[in-house]
Amino acid sequence: MSDKYEQLKDLKLPRWHELPDFDIYMDQVIIYINQRLSALEITESDKPITSTMVNNYVKNSIVKPPIKKHYKRYHLAFLIVVTILKRVYSLSEISKMLEIQREMEGSDLESAYDTFGEYFETALKEILISERRSASDPQKDNYLTLLTNVIDSVVLKIYTDIKLKELSK
């Protein structure tokens, strides 16, 4: 396994209580999130988040605007979740998901965020650990693994789209 696999297997999202409990500025938000999610960088230019992205999320009402240029713990939580989800979902889909989460009875931001982190880490580890390669034809097996992952991604995306539509009614 490559170093990237090991970094991803070891990825641990900060839990709610580990997020800074004081106001921080945009540049600190970017540094913090990029350091914590650096394992998600696949290429050198693939920064998990930039200030332009944050401004776009605020502009599109996905993340609440900063208060006097200060970001709070809940901003970081939302930005971490959005940074992960944007790899697969559009901003409008992410917005719907966040809205559904907010409307769930008994849902609170802290436990929803921590649950997201736990499930994400578990799924990531399971996928990375369960990858199987046959010694008979590594080239073919790599292709089949990639094909299976692509198909699984599409099927899960279709399923999620259906569930989002049902829950948005």
Structure description:
Helices cover 62% and strands 0% of the residues. It has 7 helices and no strands. It has helices spanning 3-9, 26-36, 51-59, 73-85, 91-103, 109-130, 138-167.
Largest sheet: none
Indicate the radius of gyration in whole angstroms. Answer: 18 Å
Give the SSE string: HHHHHHH
Strand content is under 5%
Instruction: State the name of the first-level CATH class of the largest domain.
Output: Mainly Alpha
β-strand number = 0
Please estimate the helix content: 55-70%
CATH architecture verdict of the largest domain = Orthogonal Bundle
Q: Detail the poorly predicted runs.
A: none
Shape: globular
Q: Kindly report the CATH topology of the largest domain.
A: Multidrug-efflux Transporter Regulator, Chain: A, Domain 2
Which structural class is indicated by helix and strand composition? mainly alpha
| Number of helical regions | 7
Distance between the termini: 44 Å
Topology:
Blueprint: H1 3-9, H2 26-36, H3 51-59, H4 73-85, H5 91-103, H6 109-130, H7 138-167
Helix pairs in contact: 4-6
Task: Name a few traits of the molecule.
2 domains, mainly alpha, 169 residues, 62% helix, globular, Multidrug-efflux Transporter Regulator, Chain: A, Domain 2, single chain
